[in-house]
Amino acid sequence: MMNADAWNKRYQEKESLWVAAPDRGLVELAERLTPGVALDLGAGEGRNSLYLASHGWKVTAVEFSSVAIERLQRLATQQGVNLDTVQSDIFTYLRTTLPAVDLVVVAYLHFPPEDRNELYRLLSDAVMPGTHLCLIGHHVESFGHVGPPDPARLWSESDFATSFQDFDTLLLEKRIEGTDHGHGDAPVLIAWLRKKVPTTTQ
Ligand SMILES: C[S@@+](CC[C@H](N)C(=O)[O-])C[C@H]1O[C@@H](n2cnc3c(N)ncnc32)[C@H](O)[C@@H]1O
Hints:
Blueprint: H1 4-12, H2 24-32, E1 37-41, H3 47-53, E2 58-63, H4 66-79, E3 84-87, H5 90-96, E4 103-107, H6 113-126, E5 132-138, H7 159-163, E6 167-176, E7 187-195
Parallel strand pairs: 1-2, 1-4, 2-3, 4-5
Antiparallel strand pairs: 5-7, 6-7
Helix pairs in contact: 5-6
The structure holds S-adenosylmethionine.
């Protein structure tokens, strides 16, 4: 797994690393929800955090790269958007902070399978019933076109089946995002999940 120093180095090589537009799959979900509290894990330069914060959400962006966080904060200031940033490893954050949030965003985090499963386990345990998750990543069929050069780190529909048993799947879709997102014809996988609210029996 790449550490914060390696990510800082990658960020320093370019003025901006990612497109400015938020993920369509996130916008579509956010438009259906009442704005509340959102957590963007591995927020990068903050395109999804900035979108949510400018649409009424109270956002915390968690990111371990100081370079990315500085960019995110600069963009927020330029755009007159208020949000909170936490410079932290997301695994540590989830283990130590129980977020009472309405929406968690995980976009383009391509960890090796054991770390991905650990992230999903932590997330699944940490969030409250009713919380929505928006997970977006390169589909395994995009191997060789975009994303990490390791199919095991790319996403498959089956990744979600075991990790999120306490969740309803509202959407699980393989999609071509389009060239404006820099992915060409390579598909992304979008999952919208909602933690089940236990029903009480009398
Ligand atoms: C491919 S970028 C995606 C950024 C953002 N989610 C987006 O879609 O624009 C992955 C980001 O996750 C961050 N990251 C990777 N592992 C992390 C970790 N363990 N804790 C915190 N941030 C992490 C990296 O620094 C990088 O900014």
